[in-house]
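Lab notebook: predicted structure, single chain.

Context: the supervisor wants predicted structures on file for every construct in the current expression panel, including those that have not yet been purified. This is the next one on the list. No modifications to the sequence; it matches the entry in the shared construct table.
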Amino acid sequence: MSISLRTDRPNNLTTFIVRGEILADEILSALKLFYENPEQPATLNILIDLREIHSAPTIKDEDLSRIVSYSSNHADKRKGGKTAMVVRSDFEFYMSKKYELFTQLKGLSITVVVFRSFGEAMVWLEK
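Prediction complete. Output recorded below exactly as produced.
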């Protein structure tokens, strides 16, 4: 898997583009780069583009919990921010909705919403 980050400072948006098989440790590494890079402070909003995943995600509930816990520890850097996740398949939608639910249960100050359309995600992020 590869995760590339693209930052759009004028729009306060970072896009995570995920390709190939998705692994929890690589997600955590990308989040660490996003949150802990002193030269590039975290943007308020994130777009996670999962449309180029080539296989079904193998992330377990424990992995989702670790990712949400890590994000929770850094949530103050994005208080009031939004995270849009864009998926193409039903299985990816289900897994991403689980992540959305985990963030709600953890009480993150960041809103996470899953979309099937890139355009709809961008409209939501701009509001």
